[in-house]
Amino acid sequence: MERVAAFLFAVALLGGAASVSAADDTIRTCALTKAFECTSEGGCREWSIREMALPRFFRIDLKARTITSLDKNVPRAPTIITAIDHPEGMIVLHGAEKRGWSMTLGEDTGTLTLSATDPEAGFVVFGSCLNPPD
Questions:
Q1: For 70-110, how does the pLDDT look when each residue is reduced to its tens digit (9 = 90+)?
Q2: Tens digit of pLDDT for each residue in 13-62?
Q3: What residues form DSSP beta bridges with 60?
């Protein structure tokens, strides 16, 4: 009887958690995997995420318009998203923090491409995000 009660309690908890997740489709948890820097004079070169001092893991909150580091080795203040566009199949985020940036998320694929530019260089970073459940 105790096992049945524990099972029912667990199902109730999981069901509640699933409905909370499904209700909030504005959160993405992401990881960065590859990064490149390009300059007009030096061409492009690959950097590690660590060398670029970027958080390996972060959370995007579309409702709050923030990007927050989840990487304890790279603590940062949240980045503000100044604009969000929704072309078909994508979410495109824009902002400025030390340089101008845009991030494109594949709505179905979870792929992520980030580009950031300043007057001297351009950066392209790739990664993936967990999409909310349907």
A1: 999 998 899 999 999 999 999 999 999 889 999 999 998 99
A2: 334 444 344 446 899 999 999 999 999 888 999 999 999 999 999 999 99
A3: 28, 67
Q: How many CB atoms lie within 10 A of CB 37?
A: 19
Q: How far apart are alpha carbons 26 and 23 in whole angstroms?
A: 9
Run of H or E including 56: none
Burial grade of 97 (CB within 10 A; 0-12, 13-18, 19 or more): middle
Alpha-carbon gap, residue 39 to 121, rounded angstroms: 5
Give residue 94's identity as a one-letter amino acid code: H
What does residue 90 show for φ and ψ, rounded to 5 degrees?
-140, 160
Q: What token pair was written down for 25?
A: 């489709």
Altogether, the residues listed in the chain come to a count of 134
Neighbours of 45 (CB within 10 A): 10
Both tokens of 56, joined, read: 């390996």
> What is the pTM (predicted TM-score) of this model?
0.78
